[in-house]
Amino acid sequence: MERKQFLRSLGAGAAFAIAFPCLGACSKDGGEPGGGNTPVPTGVDFTLDLQSAESEKLSRNGGFITKNSVVIVKNLEGNFVAASQVCSHQGYEEVRFLDRDGGIFYCEVHGSRFEQSGKPLNKVDQAQAKSLKIFKTELSGALLRVFE
Ligand code: FES
């Protein structure tokens, strides 16, 4: 079977995936606008209503949401913590919370992992790993303030 016939037999979606396998994941390393080198958020000060729909995922331990370039987490112990969504490695806005290893922050772009204190757990290249920026949280009834 010729390549053209083979691709046609797979259908358009599969043929596209084979022809352009690097779109998406590889573009993260390409320095495109909105990719790396995003500034770490500063002047953060906002309040979440924990009874609102946007905060629904914070009703369970291990749940998190993102807002204003901040990852807001209800950790596995039921405490609220917040960190920059912008990774300290190369500035991609891809930091998320993982409910494993006791609960860690993780950036999927190159695999950086951080303690909830922001301390790096690994380094993904030769450079010294930098801490992830952590924000303060303050709970008052059903209102959660996230600030510096
Ligand atoms: S930008 Fe490299 S691990 Fe996050």
Give the SSE map.
Blueprint: H1 3-10, H2 12-19, E1 45-49, E2 64-67, E3 70-74, E4 80-84, E5 95-98, E6 104-107, E7 113-114, E8 134-140, E9 143-147
GO molecular function: 2 iron, 2 sulfur cluster binding; dioxygenase activity; metal ion binding
Signal peptide: 1-24
Pfam family, one: Rieske
What report would you give on this structure?
- There is one protein chain.
- With 148 residues, the chain is mostly beta strands.
- The protein folds into two domains: 1-30, no CATH class; 36-147, 3-layer Sandwich (Rieske Iron-sulfur Protein), CATH 2.102.10.10.
- 11% of the residues lie in helices and 28% in strands.
- The chain is built from two helices and nine strands.
- The strands form two sheets. A six-stranded antiparallel sheet has the order 1-9-8-4-3-2, with no helix packed on it. A three-stranded antiparallel sheet has the order 5-6-7, with no helix packed on it.
- Strand 2 (64-67) and strand 3 (70-74) form a beta hairpin.
- The radius of gyration is 19 Å and the shape is globular.
- Mean pLDDT is 84; it is low at 9-33.
- Bound molecules: FE2/S2 (inorganic) cluster.
- FE2/S2 (inorganic) cluster binds at residues 87, 89-90, 92, 94, 107, 109-112, 124.
- FE2/S2 (inorganic) cluster (FES) binds at residues 87, 89-90, 92, 94, 107, 109-112, 124.
- This is Ferredoxin subunit of nitrite reductase or a ring-hydroxylating dioxygenase.
- Pfam families: Rieske.
